[in-house]
Write a structure and sequence with these properties.
heterodimer, A: 177 residues, alpha+beta, 4-stranded antiparallel beta sheet, rod-shaped, B: 450 residues, mainly alpha, 18 helices
Chain lengths: 177, 450
């Protein structure tokens, strides 16, 4: 669309940022993205973001981990070559289970932790040599930035942002992707 | 301000009275003579119920003789079948006699342990200056009010139960048992009593002063009482870790005087802490539902539920560590403990683990569920049942061996102490305001949000 414009409003305080987000949401402007140097408590709530499902994913990965451990040790120790090692009963998995529990536990934690971290990287698109998507280097130090893309009139938005406590408002020319 | 209702008073008195009647019934009906036991055994072997395996187990597991003497006797008895039967009948007679004492002891210890676990948790809250929990302090203080009477009753039962619970208190057994003789420096009635009084005295002194300072802080103009409470809590925690450990050797581990385990004290502590926290959560939910705890919100419940979850896992970790190390090395002198439990008590033994670990693990894992009272109540009731079974599994296999069950003796013992516990705890709740007013952390606690 021709008339779409991008605004970057910069703030220098997280409390001001939170109240600004509330005001902007009230006026029904769409917030494209917010850049902060550190986690701001309650920001996801005022933005109305969906809660994360990473914990559910981790639970499923943990279940996969314990399955892997069980199948592996059942095959190796019971099915494939049931040796008598120091008198430990290798007639069935259950009989020798206490000896397997440390590995079952560790593999559960291993799968849950690592697969969840990898999921996090994939979902948040982070990997080595990835080009940084930082609109303003100051947002990694001490400034907070709200990015708004809108096709509504410009003047009231600028006034709104100014009133909400922005220290700087920049209009960005749309890049041609 | 909570007011102790007449309904609650009558209800708990009824529990105590019904429980006492039931217990005395089971006590009087357990007084069989040797002939009656022989008749009973003859009947059982006719029906073919639990004769052979139990009989064999008893021979391999009984604690009454050291192994050398025992083997000699075994040889004699294989020649003289009749004498063997006599001795078996006598063992069964002892087990049947022991049951009401053991049932009472298990229930008494279970409720005492709830109170002691709460006291330790309370001291940790003070010593760590937790900002979330001060709105719950009065609930915790009320639960710990049961500690002094509860612990004295446990001690009394141990003393009256005597050789029915602790075989090392039976001079006849000790005379034939070199292992117990070697432990007599620690395991004798006088030092048992002195140690127990030191533990109970120390815990009660801390409880008395901590409550006193906590109430005094409500009307004080400075924070002197709070600071004192912080200091004595830190001191108490050191004292507690030593005495709790020794208490678990004395009051629980010594029912199996031939057996020992180094992490036993921790294991008992985990059981205590999780039961204590569960009861705090349950009473909090009850009072909240009556509208008496204005400032308790679902974040407080969430924290309590997290502690329930965490300590359940901690308990399972210690339970498994103790079991697995002994199972793996399989040293005969240690492993009899678990052989007795798995062979004779297979269902309670593994059910207990499921109730104490698997159930709370899956119910309380979800963050949203931890805020919903019904889930906490569900998990809490299962945890309490599970930890009663845990204490049961520690005492019963050493006292009644294969003559166990959950009958009138056990049920009425629970009723007695449940009634007493409710009466004392809710009486204490009605003594003071339910909000610790001038606690320096109370504002943070009122606004606590997770």
């Amino acid at each position: 669309m021709e008339s779409t414009k991008t605004f970057h409003a910069l703030y220098n305080d997280d409390d001001v940022l939170l109240s600004a987000v509330k005001v902007i949401k009230e006026k029904h402007y769409d917030i494209e993205e917010i850049y902060t140097p550190f986690p701001v408590h309650g920001l996801d709530k005022v933005m109305g973001l969906e809660p994360t499902r990473l914990a559910i994913a981790a639970f499923i990965y943990g279940c996969i981990g314990i399955t892997v451990a069980t199948l592996m040790m059942n095959y190796i120790m019971i099915v494939d070559w049931p040796q008598n090692i120091g008198g430990k009963p290798s007639f069935s998995y259950l009989e020798n289970m206490p000896a397997f529990v440390p590995i079952m536990f560790e593999l559960t934690v291993f799968h849950a932790a690592h697969l969840m971290v990898i999921t996090f990287y994939l979902r948040s698109r982070m990997w080595p040599l990835k080009e940084a998507e930082n609109p303003d280097p100051r947002t990694t130090d001490d400034h907070f930035l709200i990015e708004i893309i809108t096709d509504k009139p410009v003047a009231p938005l600028k006034k709104l942002l100014k009133d909400s406590g922005a220290v700087e408002i920049n209009e960005i020319k749309n890049k041609v992707n | 301000m909570y007011i102790l209702s007449n309904r609650l008073k009558i209800f708990s008195l009824a529990l105590i009275i019904i429980g006492s009647l039931g217990w005395f019934y089971s006590y009087s009906s357990s007084h069989l003579t040797l002939d009656q036991v022989k008749e009973l055994l003859a009947e059982e072997s006719h029906n073919g119920s639990h004769s052979d395996t139990a009989h064999a187990m008893e021979n391999s597991n009984e604690n009454h003789h050291n192994t050398d003497i025992h083997h000699e006797e075994m040889d004699e008895h294989s020649e003289d079948a009749h004498g063997h039967e006599d001795e078996h009948a006598e063992h069964v007679l002892h087990q049947i006699h022991n049951r009401p004492y053991a049932a009472l002891y298990v229930a008494a210890f279970f409720f005492m342990m709830i109170s002691l676990g709460t006291l330790a948790f309370y001291a940790i809250q003070y010593a760590s200056q937790a900002g979330w929990s001060p709105v719950l302090f009065r609930v915790m203080e009320a639960i710990t009010y049961y500690l002094l009477p509860g612990a004295l009753i446990v001690l009394l039962i141990a003393y009256v139960g005597d050789k029915h619970i602790f075989i090392w208190m039976d001079p006849e057994v000790v005379a034939h048992d070199e292992i117990i003789q070697a432990k007599e420096g620690w395991l004798n009635k006088t030092s048992f009593l002195i140690r127990a009084l030191i533990y109970i005295g120390g815990w009660s002194l801390y409880r008395y002063f901590s409550r006193k300072f906590s109430v005094a802080q409500d009307h004080a103009k400075d924070n002197k009482n709070f600071k004192r409470n912080f200091q004595i809590s830190a001191g108490f925690l050191v004292f507690f870790m030593y005495t709790e450990s020794m208490m678990s050797w004395d009051w629980i581990m010594s029912v199996d005087p031939h057996w020992f385990s180094t992490l036993f004290g921790w294991y008992v502590f985990a059981s205590m802490a999780v039961s204590g926290i569960t009861v705090i959560a349950l009473i909090t939910i009850y009072l909240k539902s009556k509208g008496l705890l204005e400032y308790v919100n679902d974040s407080h419940l969430h924290d309590l539920a997290k502690f329930m979850f965490g300590f359940s896992v901690f308990w399972a970790y210690l339970w498994f560590s103790q079991f697995m190390l002994i199972w793996y090395a399989n040293i005969p002198e240690e492993v009899t403990y678990f052989v007795t439990r798995i062979e004779i008590y297979p269902i309670p033994f593994f059910t207990m683990f499921a109730l104490n670990f698997l159930f709370p693990f899956f119910v309380l894992m979800n963050s949203d569920y931890k805020r919903v009272p019904i889930f906490i109540i569900m998990a809490g009731v299962v945890i309490l049942v599970g930890h009663y079974m845990d204490v049961y599994m520690m005492i019963m296999p050493a006292t009644v061996i294969d003559r166990y069950g959950f009958g009138i003796a056990e049920f009425s013992s629970i009723l007695i102490f449940l009634g007493l516990f409710l009466l004392i705890v809710f009486y204490s709740l009605s003594k003071e305001e339910l909000l610790a007013k001038r606690n320096p952390l109370i504002k943070e606690s009122k606004n606590f949000h997770y």
